[in-house]
Amino acid sequence: MFKISLKYMKNAKIFIKKVSFAINDDMYYNIxxxxxxxxxxxxxxxxxxxxxxxxxxxxxxxxxAVASMFESMNRDLGDLPHSISEYWMNNYIDNSSEVENEPTxxxxxxxxxxxxxxxxxxxxxxxxxxxxxxxxxDFINYEAESLPINVLTDLMxxxxxxxxx
Length: 165
What we know:
- This protein has helices at 35-53, 59-73, 80-93, 105-119, 130-143, 149-161, and strands at residues 2-11, 14-23, 27-30.
- The chain is α+β, with helices and mostly antiparallel strands.
- α2 (59-73) packs antiparallel against α3 (80-93) and α5 runs antiparallel to α6.
- The relative contact order is 0.10.
């Protein structure tokens, strides 16, 4: 038995239709997906594909595919996403004691937090180590001229709130 419920959310005079399907009144499927949800789902697909296509899972290869996807999702930010993905690979994947199991949920969570930071959806409970915020600040400062001013302002505001500046 399917029930369709339509909900409308008003945000800055924009209506977003949210559709949910209830199956037996206790399981819901939501077709409204954020960039964060999509990224996480695509990471799982990359890992699954790597496992199914190769007799031995190559965690580094899967991580490189995830890094490439991260860059392509943020291509409007110039070289900033590439700098961030290189940092992630160097500091989290290549230094992992179990590279063959990468990317781990913890390391994917790191990218999800950065993705939220870049798209302006960072929640108060999302955080990174101070050294990572400082590295992000360095990358942003280096790429500042190529970033849209509104994005640069928003990113810097977060860095100030994180007491990095």
